[in-house]
Design a protein that fits this description.
The protein is built from 9 helices and 18 strands. The chain is of the alpha+beta class. The radius of gyration is 21 Å and the shape is globular. The two termini are 39 Å apart. Pfam families: Chorismate_synt.
Length: 377
């Protein structure tokens, strides 16, 4: 399906080499100030051609709002946004798409499912589809910021074997989660890793694989601060379940780890439990530690939400690969086209956008519950 959300909903459209990509966002509250300038920064952070660490495809990814806004105010009606594909090259795929299903790509499975597929690039499986998500996420994020000063910051914590410390029990890592900003992340250059001691090695790791006409994967970690308590819908739409759903819908994502994650299984409950205390300054209960990752029982508890998402190595590479054609004959595939040697740094605004979409939807659902409770009491 191409629609995500219940009250705050986004439907994306477009393929990698069609005329445009974009989205329709429904459920945006009326009266909110919104312009294209609110949306463009995240699209610019996601766009290709930013550096030698990304695909050379050169797209401006300039957003054009088509509806739902008048005099810079949201009308409460669907907001349509269009981003034109200006540097598409479908002919790059003429020699391979009708012969070979690209290894570990979606060519074979899309063909099996629909009986037809886009003849160039990845079609709907291409990361170009995520442009609509990022545009919609920018609106969701502005709403969250306005209502509750919510901050969402993603950053690279691993490329290949090169990683920064992200031990959830390490106070230094918790300090990073408490203080990291997008300005800090972007100041580290195209690698977007806040740890200067490993950022340079991460760049070299990507350059090594790019030089070998290969690719490499990595991990994006994301933190959410200032989120209200009470968000999440047990049992099946728990907040971490919806975040996992959102993250695993991103192309090339391969997992989801929240809070203490896999490291928590080796820690006894007596040490893993997050003890409560009363915060006199904030006038509310808080936890001394945050091994839960800001969510307990599927509901936000007011602490930072933090999670990590691994992204696999890009499937389309220029190396010759022995594989099989659609009709089962052995052959050698050397893919053409322009592709990232590592998608991880450019995945950050996509992770942030999907996070914002989940949280905006959850906040509207909770606000409706709170209002309905108020009118019956």
């Amino acid at each position: 399906m191409s629609t995500f959300g219940k009250l705050f909903k986004v439907t994306t459209y477009g393929e990698s080499h069609c005329k445009s990509v974009g989205c329709i966002v429904d459920g945006v509250p009326p009266g909110m100030t919104l312009t294209e300038a609110d949306i463009q920064p995240q699209l610019t952070r996601r766009r290709p051609g930013q550096s030698k660490l990304s695909t050379p495809r050169n797209e401006k990814d300039k957003v054009e709002i088509q509806s739902g806004i008048e005099f810079n105010k949201t009308l409460g009606t669907p907001i349509a946004m269009l981003i034109r594909n200006e540097d598409q090259r479908p002919n790059d795929y003429n020699d391979i798409m009708n012969k070979f299903p690209r290894p570990s790509h979606a060519d074979f499975t899309y063909s099996e499912k629909y009986g037809i597929q886009a003849s160039s690039g990845g079609g709907r499986a291409s990361a170009r589809e995520t442009i609509g998500r990022v545009a919609a996420g920018a609106i969701a994020e502005k709403f969250l910021k306005q209502v509750s000063n919510v901050e969402i910051v993603g950053f690279v914590t691993q490329i290949g074997e090169i990683k920064m410390e992200r031990n959830p029990f390490d106070p230094n890592f918790q300090h990073v989660l408490n203080t990291i900003t997008r300005e800090k992340v972007d100041s580290m250059g195209p690698i977007r890793c806040p740890d200067a001691s490993v950022a340079g090695d991460m760049v070299k790791e990507i350059e090594k694989y790019r030089g070998n006409q290969d690719s490499i994967g990595g991990v994006v970690t994301c933190v959410v601060r200032n989120l209200p308590t009470g968000l999440g819908e047990p049992c099946f739409d728990k907040l971490e379940a919806m975040l996992a759903h959102a993250m695993l819908s991103i192309p090339a994502s391969k997992g989801f780890e929240i809070g203490s994650g896999f490291a928590g299984v080796s820690v006894p409950g007596s040490k893993h439990n997050d003890m409560f205390y009363y915060d006199e300054e904030q006038k509310r209960l808080r936890t001394k530690t945050n091994n839960s990752g800001g969510i307990q029982g599927g509901i936000s508890n007011g602490e930072n939400i933090y999670f990590s998402v691994p992204f696999k190595s890009v499937a389309t590479i220029s190396q010759e690969q022995k594989t099989a054609t659609y009709d089962g004959k052995e052959g050698v595939l050397a893919a053409k086209g322009r592709h990232d040697p590592a998608v991880t740094p450019r995945a950050i605004p996509i992770v942030e956008a999907m996070t914002a979409l989940v949280l905006a939807d959850a906040l509207l659902i909770q606000k409706s519950r709170e209002y309905s409770r108020s009118i019956v009491n």
